[in-house]
């Protein structure tokens, strides 16, 4: 029975990291920066005016929808998908602060009445409804009103953690700067309003994105010839599309497509040489090292976007996470992994500050499903560390690792 040994270690990792400000993000095909167009609320005007205009230019946009709003025009929304547009999740009840008078009316529900659990339930339900109606499961989310806080007073908290769990991105509204692909939290990317303005008003933001290699995410609502409130003017859209057509250095694509590319590049140490962003604990002190927050080094390993996991390991591949621990802590180690049914489990060797142990990653749940289990404990001293995992056996073709979670041990 063959065994594959992995090493998980907290040590200084000998990669010549660039200092902050020295690194440059690599956009595809020599592009200098990215632009995405997005619309909220599944308003009928985008079907009548916006999508036909975008289709003429071959521009794909992201539409954040409410399931009950798209049922009456399913054929048109399905046609939009077929034309290369993306469908995102915008909740079912459009929750915003109850400070807005209209949110206190049926069928709305104020953010102050939500818990993290009820918000997660609504987002999952909305995803299921969209999948049933359109046959796609959204990877992109837009915060209604751009607001991310639920609850009241001392009980108020962000639900960005829920969005990070369920989606690749969460987009804001009425923000002030483009997205920095190297440093952004994809659960809270900025959304710049394109409603009620002429194209010339957005040019300074486009130029900033060009100069710094950023990602400009534009957000609107209605789109039509009339200059009504919360409306992206058709002239604005046409001028923007003409501008992009004349400037080959711009990559214009839906939010989910750009975000997936950003996520893949940020996990690839062959492309980036800045230090991985440090991961800190949540309110319970748990440190969730998702694959998307790690950095892979080596000849073959890759981040598999549709599984949100690292795969294609060889004995020359490694993955590194940066972790920040406030006080010396003993953690339970949870690993989420998948391995082919016909293969035996994988041994892993854990080393932290001289502490060694060998634990077994057994078979996963079969049929490519992931298994999550506690595989051991580890004590980490206070400070910032690099956490590295690497195989010592070359035959790891079927193994994928989605996350390592460090949970403070009680008692």
Automatic annotation (TrEMBL):
PROSITE patterns: NODB (PS51677). Pfam families: Polysacc_deac_1. Signal peptide: none annotated. It comes from the Bacteria. CDD domains: CBM6-CBM35-CBM36_like, CE4_GLA_like_6s. GO terms for molecular function: hydrolase activity, acting on carbon-nitrogen (but not peptide) bonds. Residues 33-149 form the NodB homology domain. This is NodB homology domain-containing protein. It comes from Parapedobacter pyrenivorans.
């Amino acid at each position: 029975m063959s065994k594959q040994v992995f090493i998980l270690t907290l040590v200084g990792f000998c990669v010549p990291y660039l200092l902050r400000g020295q690194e440059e993000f690599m956009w595809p095909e020599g592009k200098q920066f990215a632009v995405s167009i997005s619309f909220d609320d599944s308003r009928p005007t985008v079907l009548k005016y916006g999508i036909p205009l975008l289709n003429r230019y071959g521009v794909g946009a992201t539409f954040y929808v409410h399931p009950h709003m798209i049922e009456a025009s399913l054929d048109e929304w399905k046609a939009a998908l077929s034309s290369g547009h993306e469908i995102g999740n915008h909740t079912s009840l459009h929750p915003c602060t109850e400070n807005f008078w209209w949110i206190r009316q049926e069928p709305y529900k104020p953010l102050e009445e939500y818990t993290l659990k009820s918000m997660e339930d609504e987002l999952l339900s909305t995803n299921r409804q969209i999948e049933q109606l359109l046959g796609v499961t959204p990877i992109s989310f837009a915060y209604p009103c751009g607001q991310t806080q639920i609850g009241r007073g001392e009980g108020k908290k962000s639900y960005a953690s829920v969005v990070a769990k369920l989606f690749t991105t969460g987009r804001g509204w009425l923000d002030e700067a483009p997205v920095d692909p190297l440093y952004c939290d994809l659960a809270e990317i900025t959304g710049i309003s394109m409603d009620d303005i002429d194209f010339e008003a957005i040019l300074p933001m486009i130029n900033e994105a060009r100069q710094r290699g950023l990602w400009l995410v534009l957000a609107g609502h209605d789109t039509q010839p009339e200059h009504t409130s919360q409306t992206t003017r058709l002239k604005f859209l046409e001028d923007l599309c003409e501008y992009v057509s004349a400037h080959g250095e711009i990559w214009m694509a839906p939010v989910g497509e750009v975000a997936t590319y950003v996520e893949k590049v940020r996990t690839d140490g062959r492309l980036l040489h800045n230090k991985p962003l440090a991961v800190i604990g949540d309110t319970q002190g748990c440190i969730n090292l998702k694959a998307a927050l790690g950095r892979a080094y080596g000849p073959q390993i890759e981040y598999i976007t549709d599984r949100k996991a690292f795969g294609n390991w060889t004995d020359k591949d490694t993955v590194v996470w940066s972790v920040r621990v406030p006080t010396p802590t003993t953690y339970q180690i949870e690993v989420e992994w998948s391995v082919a049914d016909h293969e035996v489990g994988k041994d892993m060797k854990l080393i932290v500050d001289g502490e060694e142990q060998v634990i077994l990653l057994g078979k996963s749940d079969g049929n490519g499903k992931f298994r999550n289990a506690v595989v051991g404990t580890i004590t980490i001293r206070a400070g910032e560390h690099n956490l590295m995992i690497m195989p010592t056996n070359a035959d790891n073709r079927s193994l994928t690792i989605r996350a390592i979670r460090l949970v403070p041990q009680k008692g």
